[in-house]
Task: structure prediction
Amino acid sequence: MPITLYELVGRDEGRPFSPHCWKTAFALAHKGLDFTTVPTRFLDVPAIENGVTRHVPLIRDGDRLVSDSFEIALYLEQAYPERPTLFAGEGGVALSRFVERWSTSTLHSFIGKALLLDIHDRLGEADQAYFRKSREARIGATLEAASQQREERLEAFRASLAPLRGMVEAQAFIGGEAPLFADHIVAGALQWARVISPFRLLEESDPVAVWFERCLDLYGGLGRQVAAAA
Result:
């Protein structure tokens, strides 16, 4: 029986956009596991699986429910040890935890503000009202104001990617010659931006952009199954 993945969508059910859900989709594909997806909107999340979680991703694997993208990856590694590894040992788990924190502080902190208005505009009317109220309370500004500041902050954001840039110039993936969950963490954040907004985060020649293109080609081009936002 395929694993079920609940993933976040807006008006277009064929355009899942959560970075955390993309991490999980990449992890499932990395393991070579069959899975089906359940498009889930913001206001639908509290009702899924009898209210077991407040956030997606959530997977159902038989009788087992697991939420949180990192916990899901750990579960998949333990439950399916015979399949391609997501971590390559405890060192890879530690690496992925570091990358998760770096991604949150560097990628999510910029993308999460810069693209708020783009995300809002792709939601249904009820979700738009929820999203605007909750995000404007969180950032202390309007979505429009946050969007207007992104051009000013873009150069500094690109400069902040120097550690990742140096790594992927020297090797194919964060995991080395092959991807690990650490790659999926960062690719999930960039995929979030790619599918939700036409705003260009990276120049095409940037080694990070070249690495991301390699990630989009993985698993039969899973990431490319959703076209870039236009």
Observations:
- The CA atoms of residues 29 and 219 lie 6 Å apart.
- The chain is about 55% helix and 10% strand.
